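Consider what follows.

. . .
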Amino acid sequence: MKARYIISYLVAAMSLIACKQEEIPVYDVKDSAVFFKRASIEFSLKGNNDPQPEIRIPLEVFGPVCDYERVFQVAIPDSSYNDAVLGRDFEIISSKVPAGAMEGEIIIKVQGLTNETPSHTVAMEILPDKNFPHSVKDRECAKVTWSKDFVRPDNQYTRQAWYNFFCTGYSKALHELLYDYFGEEIERAGYSSGAMKDENTVYHVNTWWYGAQSEFFDFVRKHDRENPDSPYMHSADYEIYTSYTQETGTGIKPQVIPTIQSTLIH
């Protein structure tokens, strides 16, 4: 009787394993797509003295990992916000996904900005081809901006950290104050609870962030107490976001620009 039960259990177990194996999807190269991480991407060239700096636009990949480099085509579609001209204001150096990678990038070289032209914006579109036949809705195109001024960090880990520990809104004035207080590393600082790491991010544990949060709040509060007629204020671009993943420019603009202290998390 025991032998019969054991055989029954083995048959049932093998059936379950077979079912699970059938559910595992198998991707083919023809299923691949490469797409922008966000519909709007901004880069700051503040402090960059290179007359022709390079900008790396990160991309994500859907589909299998390949053991060879895959290139793809990028187009500049007509758009109302295009004020940069290909061949004059920038050039596309490369657009590819390295072998063994699940991320790619578009590298562009831009002409140095001036006080008369402090920023440029251009629309980019990834065209389907033999390496990446498919597109991802709302992520095949992106608005790319580079500026002499501060811009909201593009790094998702930095955005998450700033949102959770400093302020759920963003303004260039807040950015400048954080930069002046902590240094340029704050623009690359983040934290991650998972195993995924980004080589461009400087990671800190939560205790560091809580300390930085308290220290920065005390610094701003001290200044405002000593200077009641000129407290630190957000700039006119201040927006409140419901998530750190929310697109720049889609937040809520308050009717009255608040002090930075009144919006800090503490």
